Task: inverse folding
């Protein structure tokens, strides 16, 4: 699953990306602001670390997400708008968009459109997503109309799609995202291949002044959930040796780097959940879509486990931790034997029984 950082020029995307990538242990070169950067990032998960501390396996594996840092979109002039279009495909390939907007004052960094206004920048980006989708819908409508003039066996299907596309167009023209005009799950499925930008899950990241990073929580940015952080601080933390971080954070009045919160928020926003496995060889977090059943979870590990599925021996991480270990959790009656259709919850620790 992939998250794209999208924003106006110089909003702090690459600084933040650098910090997020460093969480996965990789120090990326972000010196070329005209090119996208890609990093695979480990999803911080204290539960896996607790399990690893307990079972001391040779291998510990966290869930992973991909992040891509795109060049800034300058929508203030025609040439910039044309260049922005070249990044639409990369944005469509992402599963989610994180809009990074500026609210830091620093006069040494020239502000986009000569103003510092995070909400206005976000509004502009969201409108651009709608334009991008409108472009795509219009092209599709023209194609369908042309196809309907030719005799084919697919008329009924085409008329139905045309009707839907006209509906999407009307929504987009009144500045509403595609997601508001999808009438059924079947339509949603049909639309997936178009990868509309205004249908993607999204969050706003407000890049604030260093002095404001500790103040207050994550305020709402209309209409998206929002994370407030200082990309500059995040980058500095990433460059510090781990031993020096606590003192640095304490100085700034911060409990933890914001990047962990950001990564987890993206995970949640894409409706992903983790189930955990632990054994002598490996403790591991596995990613599945929220609402997935036990067989789907089993298949994530190996198709044989799904095929020969018998039962999922399941305990919630909280119950396991409260008990101290598997034995105690079992004695306390906290281990459940779940069947194929059991809906796996975030933090379930599962041992699959299977037979092939
Ligand atoms: N004071 C301050 N400066 C910042 C902050 N974040 C970024 N900057 C500075 O702003 C400039 C741009 O930061 P980048 O991370 O390169 O911004 P960007 O969004 O990747 O820029 P483009 O890729 O060119 O669109 C750099 O000089 C950063 O040091 C911040 O939180 N506070
Ligand atoms: Mg950049």
Result:
């Amino acid at each position: 699953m992939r998250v794209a950082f999208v924003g106006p020029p110089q909003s702090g995307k690459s600084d933040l990306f650098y910090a997020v990538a460093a969480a996965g242990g990789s120090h990326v070169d972000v010196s070329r602001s005209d090119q996208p950067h890609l990093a695979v990032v480990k999803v911080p998960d204290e539960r896996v670390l607790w399990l690893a501390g307990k079972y001391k396996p040779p291998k510990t594996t966290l869930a992973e997400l991909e992040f891509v840092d795109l060049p800034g979109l300058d929508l203030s002039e025609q040439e910039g708008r044309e260049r922005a279009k070249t990044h639409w495909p990369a944005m469509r390939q992402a599963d989610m968009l994180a809009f990074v907007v500026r609210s830091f004052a620093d006069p040494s960094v020239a502000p986009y459109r000569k103003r510092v206004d995070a909400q206005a920048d976000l509004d502009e980006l969201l409108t651009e997503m709608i334009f991008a989708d409108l472009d795509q819908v219009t092209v599709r409508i023209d194609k369908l109309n042309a196809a309907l003039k030719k005799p084919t066996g697919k008329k009924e299907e085409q008329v139905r799609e045309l009707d839907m596309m006209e509906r999407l167009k009307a929504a987009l023209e009144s500045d509403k995202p595609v997601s508001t005009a999808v009438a059924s799950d079947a339509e949603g499925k049909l639309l997936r291949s178009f990868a509309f930008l205004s249908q993607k899950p999204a969050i706003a990241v407000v890049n604030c002044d260093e002095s404001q990073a500790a103040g207050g929580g994550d305020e709402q940015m209309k209409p998206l959930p929002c994370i407030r952080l200082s990309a500059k601080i995040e980058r500095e933390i990433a460059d510090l040796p781990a031993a020096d971080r606590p003192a640095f954070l304490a100085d700034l009045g911060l409990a933890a780097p914001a990047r962990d919160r950001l990564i987890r928020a993206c995970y949640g926003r894409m409706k992903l959940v983790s189930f955990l496995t632990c054994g002598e060889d490996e403790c591991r977090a596995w990613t599945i879509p929220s609402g997935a059943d036990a067989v789907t979870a089993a298949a994530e590990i190996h198709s044989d486990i799904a095929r020969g599925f018998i039962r999922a021996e399941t305990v919630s991480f909280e119950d396991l931790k409260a008990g101290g270990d598997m034995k105690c959790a079992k004695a306390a009656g906290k281990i459940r034997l779940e069947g194929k259709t059991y809906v796996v919850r975030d933090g379930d620790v599962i041992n699959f029984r299977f037979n092939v």
